[in-house]
Structure formats: C-alpha cells, structure tokens
C-alpha cells in the first residue's frame, strides 16, 4: 500500500514538470534567464560565452574565465593576423555633464600633471581620442591613489556644457563615485530615478495563468502569451542595487553625475584587421539638416 501511494505521489510530481519543448519556449526561457540574474548580472554575450567558457562570478557579474577547448593558438592567431573581440561591458561607466570650466577645475584635484596625461589634454579634450590616467583622492596626490581609469569627452557642439564618460573597474567604482560626488557636491535627488520594478516570479505565474485562461488552443496561447507577458527588464548592474538612485546633481555647480553601467556596452578589438572589421560593420549615417 505504501509503495502504491508513493508511486501515485511520484506520478503527480512528474506531471507538474514541463517537457523540454515547453521549457524551451521563448517566454519560459526569458523568465528563467531573468530569474537566474537576480544575484549576478549577465552580459549580452553571456549565452555565447557560457557554451564555450568556464564561467566565474565576480564583482556582481557572471564572466567567462577560461575556454573549455584548446583555443589559445586560435586566439593568438586572431590577435596577430586577424581580429579578436573582447566583451568589456562589465566595466562601469560614469557620466559627468556640466560646464567645461567647472568640470576641469574640480577634476584637476583628483589627478596630477606629474603622472602624465590629465583631463585637460588638448587631444582628449576635443573628443577625438580616449585617455587614461590614475585618480587620487582630492588634493591628496601622491598619496591615497584610487585606481586607473579611462575617459573620453563628447565632442563640442557649440555650447558651454560638455559630457565626459569615465570608465572604471567595478571593484573601484564605489570609491571613485563617492569621491566624484564629494568634489562636485552632488546629492541624491528627492525623487529617485527608478524604472519599472522587476516583476517577481509569482507575478509572472499569475500573468501566464491569465493568458492560459482565454480558452484558445495551446499554440495560440504561446504566441499570444509572448505579446501579453512583457519581457522583464533587469535594472541596475552588478555594482548597484536596482532600487537605488543612479543620478546625482549639484545645486551649486550644476554638475550632474549619472551611472551608465550596463547602458553603454564596451568592446575591445585587437588585431591588424580591427579597423577593416569596424568599417565593414558600422555604416555612417547621413546628416540631415532641418
């Protein structure tokens, strides 16, 4: 009798599990992928890397560490003769916007001309080239070094306001962001800039139940379900809580700091054919004047 009850109980449990075809549907895959990104954010190239690399969890991201196949010779060949692409989107982007003179005045406090390049370099200030330097705590050079960063200015458009993007490693982001907010006297706005909250798995199940209760056929339910159930957006990144503010503004200087991590993707191309790959991939848009 116990064996019979156990067998019936197992049948009931097995009937609840979905078949592979049902699990591989787009709507179910999106819900599963989003659920697996609760603690560690995936890059947009995660699926490609997960099939070919050993993945590690670092700095709030899930990154490819080492290849599963012997591809070292192929990578070396690509770097020396062709083109090799790396996904560096886990690097954090901090955007500064405001008057150019005010930006340069305060940024000069966290870097030094003795170390080489600064934010005021003419070739970088025009927006044509990307620069790199080491940041220090305000007025503390040569002590209290924060870490290396890369930066690029947005080209001038005739106005006083400029935009500066600073790329920092996720391990250094909080310290550098705290120092930038201190020198520019930026505070969090009263109304936090938060997008739509992440839907929980319970809400997703309710939405799926609403779709399945329409009484249509199974295939039609899936097609309508993909349209009815919105794709959940993962807001925030591995270094920031999704319910924290990601923009700060100064009432005295007018400088605005925004956290653009995971909003601006970053790729690195290595090899002699990198330029030709870019020219074949990217097409210049025609400028339309009103």
Task: Describe the overall structure.
It comes from Eulacestoma nigropectus. InterPro entries: Pop1 (IPR039182), Pop1_N (IPR009723). There is one protein chain. This protein is an alpha+beta fold. Among the domains are: 24-69, no CATH class; 92-188 and 246-261, Alpha-Beta Plaits. Helix content is 34%, strand content 21%. It is built from eleven helices and eleven strands. The strands form three sheets. It has a six-stranded antiparallel beta sheet. The chain has a three-stranded mixed beta sheet with strand order 1-3-2. It has a two-stranded antiparallel sheet with strand order 4-11. Helix 9 packs across helix 10. The radius of gyration is 25 Å and the shape is globular. Mean pLDDT is 77; it is low at 190-236.
What is the number of helices? 11
Query: What is the name of the CATH architecture of one domain?
Result: 2-Layer Sandwich
The fraction of residues assigned to DSSP E strands is 15-25%
Low-confidence stretches: 190-236
**Main beta sheet:** 6 strands, antiparallel
Broad shape:
globular
InterPro entries: Pop1 (IPR039182), Pop1_N (IPR009723)
Organism: Eulacestoma nigropectus (wattled ploughbill)
Protein name: POP1 protein
Pfam families: POP1_N (PF06978)
């Amino acid at each position: 009798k116990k064996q019979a009850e156990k067998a019936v109980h197992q049948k009931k449990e097995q009937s609840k599990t979905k078949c592979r075809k049902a699990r591989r549907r787009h709507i179910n895959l999106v819900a599963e992928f989003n659920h697996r990104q609760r603690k560690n954010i995936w890059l947009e190239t995660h699926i490609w890397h997960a099939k070919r690399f050993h993945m590690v969890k670092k700095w709030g991201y899930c990154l490819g560490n080492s290849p599963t196949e012997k591809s070292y010779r192929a990578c070396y060949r690509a770097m020396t003769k062709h083109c090799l692409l790396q996904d560096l989107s886990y690097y954090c982007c901090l955007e500064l916007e405001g008057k150019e003179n005010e930006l340069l005045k305060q940024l000069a406090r966290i870097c030094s001309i003795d170390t080489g390049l600064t934010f005021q370099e003419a070739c970088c200030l025009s927006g044509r080239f990307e620069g790199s330097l080491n940041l220090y705590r305000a007025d503390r050079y040569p002590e209290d070094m924060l870490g290396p960063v890369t930066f690029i200015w947005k080209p001038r458009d005739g106005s006083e306001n400029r935009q500066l993007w600073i790329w920092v490693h996720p391990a250094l982001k909080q310290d550098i962001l705290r120092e930038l907010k201190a020198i520019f006297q930026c505070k969090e706005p009263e109304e936090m800039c938060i997008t739509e909250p992440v839907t929980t798995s319970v809400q997703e199940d309710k939405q799926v139940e609403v779709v399945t209760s329409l009484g249509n056929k199974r295939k039609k339910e899936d097609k309508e379900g993909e349209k009815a159930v919105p794709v959940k957006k993962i807001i925030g990144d591995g270094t920031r809580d999704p319910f924290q503010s990601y923009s700060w503004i100064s009432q005295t200087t007018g400088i605005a700091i925004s956290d653009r991590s995971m909003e601006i993707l970053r790729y690195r191309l290595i090899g002699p054919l990198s330029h030709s790959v870019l020219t074949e991939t990217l097409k210049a848009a025609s400028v339309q004047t009103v």
